Amino acid sequence: MRFPVLVSRLSKTARAALLAGAMTASTAMAAANLPNPILFVTQVPVPQDFATIGTVFANHMSDMQSAARGGDLWIRYPNGTLRNLTAEAGYGSSGMQGANAIAVRDPAVHFNGSKAVFSMVIGAPTSQYQQITTYWQLYEISGLGSGQTVSISRVTNQPADTNNVEPTYASDGSIIFVSDRSRNGDRHLYPQLDEYESTPTPSGLWKLNPATGRLVLLQHAPSGSFRPFVDSFGRVIFTRWDHLQRDQQAENSSYGAFNWGSESAAAATSAAVDVFPEPREDTATTFGLRFNHFFPWMINQDGSGEETLNHIGRHELFGYFNRSLRNDSSLIDFSDAAAPPRANTNVTENWLQIAEDPTSPGRYFAIDAPEFYTHSSGQIVSINGSPSTNPSNMQVTYQTPRSSRDFHPGAVPADFTGHYRNPLPLSNGGMLASWVAEPRQSANDGTRANPVPRYKFRLYSLIRDASGSLRADPNGALTTGITKSVSWWDPDVRVSYNGPLWELSAVEVRSRPVPPDTVEAAPEAPEAQAFAAANVDFTAFQNFLAARGLGVLVSRNVTTRDGRDRQQPYNLRVPGGVQTLGNSGQSHDIQFMQFLQGDQVRGLGGAVSPNRGRRVLAQPLHDAMALQFMPAPGPGAPPGSVKIASDGSVAAIVPAQRAMAWQSTDANGTPVVAERYWISVKPGEVRACGGCHGVNTTDQAGHAPAQNMPQALKDLLDYWRSTTADPLFNSGFD
Hints:
Distance between the termini: 58 Å
Number of helices: 7
């Protein structure tokens, strides 16, 4: 196995030739009004738009088909001067790509503006049929100022045998990044496969302290998380692929789907079984659930508080989705046109490449693009998501025409202005983006050996047209076009490309205040009351959980749902306890909350000779460490469940740093209301919410969000205290 290593410095002759070629393509241009230097990357175009660099998902792989070698890290100064930074530091080459070949991606500038972190892969096959193993690794660069000497070094203590991409700086100087490292580091679980296409996917967001080597999984994402950054408020904002539905590939025997008995390397195998959530296809009593989108998410820098941005969701962003049950006439299909009118009038489907507006903290720009065929380019949209903004009041703004979201194989809409990606709002109020005029879907208009990619991304300043929409400034190109002639083995065919490189992932080189280092908040009043009533010290309880890799999930009243959510049952009652009714229609009794943990146990290719890697499936909570500290739910309870208290509250100890989902059930274990997202908690986190679908303003009965002391949490603490002998964990050490 070949691992990437630092390349040796190029000879003076080779370096001079490389720089001369770069400067030929970088005649000074000052058309763009730039307040600061712009750091960006070039990439040899990859015509394929599935699981390759620049695509919507599975874009982290480093093989030659996924990430062609030949790109560089560049800086463009306000006066138009261009510098090829990686070439200056002795990395990369033109012509035939070999041991010194590189590809570069994802620069992020430090808060002090003097350095940046980025990802780079080094090495290409040196002969026909040769197969090599390489990984994207994190590097830091300094010397960004005009006339300064560039220095590039590999970030220490990062995993050397995984793809580490999309880094950003945390407030404490650590680096938060995306990696395909398995959740627990086990190599037999590498790579994690996504829930939809079963392609390799990142496992979530990771945080590394390079000085100490401390590596922490911030959140576990079964289908991948992407593009994190720390916003002005200290929140880690990122995009996540949300796909909590049954495995579509298990429905086709040709994929050879099966289940592993556990995550262990020596686990037994069995037939492919999905236990959660609802079926994909319609049944006599249910409508199928097909859940597939990229939403904006946020998390604290310590890994706590993971949720969608301000708890926004499909009810605020989507245009339509179906109800869950056929036989409940109270339920309705969701439509954005349904009464009462919602604040957001602009439908969006995906949120990619999110960036914060430096002139308006809490305002975020992103790309809404189709899943395939445009290299994740599409329409620029924006939203106000400052921490104090209620999701019901969040309005999406179309910054470019809606026609820019999709590709157009036939007639091109009159208002189509091209496809956009990597939007970059600037500190002077301007905007940059990678842009292509091409309206059709991506394709290779050449051959395998001599590709002619249809999409040719260039960096442009954007201006407002007469309608108020952003569009590429015809005089605002940041370069005259950077071209390169490269060849490589793939592995049997020699591929040659001579033409313009993609210009991507622009970031502004500037200093900015260090955001607050966000951590888990103190318990709110209802939960604090439960700790006081149980005579348990909150901090000591947290420490107990953290030492065992556990957290707690709490809901105050799971009979309450947001007033707009009428697609799942909302006339809910706990037998002998609380009820919340949205109308006089059919009611549903709920008695248990079943928790599901994301286990990497789905295999493909057949049990005899399985494909490499496994995908995550929801399995009833079975973590032994968690279950030993909870009371038994009682007779008839489905596996992995807790009993819902009479006040509608729920509390459960769950494994930390593992994707979790849940569903309420009736007394027979039949699901009633299902969570549609995966959530993970940090070790020691006590995570509380108001209801089963958090209430934005009022619940289905018109009531304010629940503020009751969750009896279930008090009962859990009482049980835990009675079974934990060490008095250290009791308030007052009594």
